[in-house]
Amino acid sequence: TGTLASLVQGSAGDAQAGPIETQVLTREGTARDVLVSAQHVDFDGAPCALLVWVDLSRHRAGERDLQEQQQ
Asked: What is the DSSP string of 11-59?
């Protein structure tokens, strides 16, 4: 997505970008809440972007359930 592309571009050089919370779609079309960080690294002399994803979907679903119970 545009958000992820800007995160990778924003991590130019040795700088780290993120973390940001966003949604991604799985191959099946299911939306997943994720936390993403990016950092540029050298891999065998070639510049690469290292992305770390943490799936927050269960956590967010638990938060929604708790809010509904409190209402």
From this structure: T-TT-EEEEEEEEEE-TTS-EEEEEEEEEEEEETTEEEEEEEEEE-HHH
